[in-house]
Predict the structure.
Amino acid sequence: MNCRSLFRFLSPSLAIDLGTANTLVYLHGRGVIVDEPSIVALRNPGREVVAVGAEARNMIGRTPGSLTAIRPLRNGVIADFAATELLLGRLMEKANGRSRLVRPRVVIGVPSEVTAVEREAVIEAASRAGAAEVRLVEQAVATALGAGLPITEASGSMVVDIGGGTTDVAVLSLSGIVYSHSLRTAGDAMDAAIIQHVRRKHGLLIGERTAETIKLEVGSAHPLDRPLHITVKGRDLVNGLPRAVDIQDEEIRQALAECLSPILQSIRAALECVPPELSGDIIERGITLTGGCALLRNLDRRIRQETGLPVAIAESPLASVVLGTGRMLEDAQFLRRAVLN
């Protein structure tokens, strides 16, 4: 075995879910070993990395003028190339045991409707971050695998992945995608809707982290059995002073309705487009929800009401993409068929 072959043999294999909200890394043979917010804190000028992940997330809205905490991915694609490279480099280094001698081979899931330019940006960012080899796979296939759906069988499986930046709706059969659609309406859009609602109704300015907390604490897609409320602190838009208001679950549900509408429309469109034979399979198996927003209260009930189909939440909705990509690492033959590049 020559030196090049030896280094390739020793190179660790990583599966990465490069998400708008969180980045997860799966190490071949060990499972998910990194799960961090997709956030980078930089020192100005010079863009020196101060922190990444959870540490950087705690800095959002609290940094002095010399520091900037940014989210380098928006709507499922790279918005800040340099910051994405820095994020990937730090997280890959963490997953690789800080070894710089052997560069890892990397497989990354990407949304089904990203452009060729956006795909190349992901490949280049990972390569510059230290990957020896980069392969891309369709996120819908990885999600379905990670959710435990039998996509290799000659029957239809439907998955709806609602992440931070995008929602992917897909129907799969025989290891391939029969129908897929990606829309850039997901968790971030919900947070923005909450910020606007609190601004309009209560005259209070809040940040992204507070909006996300509201969504997690009292957000819902369908009326709750027991009403919820939360006390929210922010800045009064009239006098500029700090103020607290009490917010009910019903008003947040109304604020989220505009974001949920295109997601529900996309699900209905998918059901209308699949072949009749696969429709029968979906009627029997139902729809599987993954992604962080799959945990929005009563979202499964709302989709069930809209479609009349069974709806289930994946066992590990936040990790479905990286678990599925990791399964591809374990099956070289499947991975060869699935790679996009």
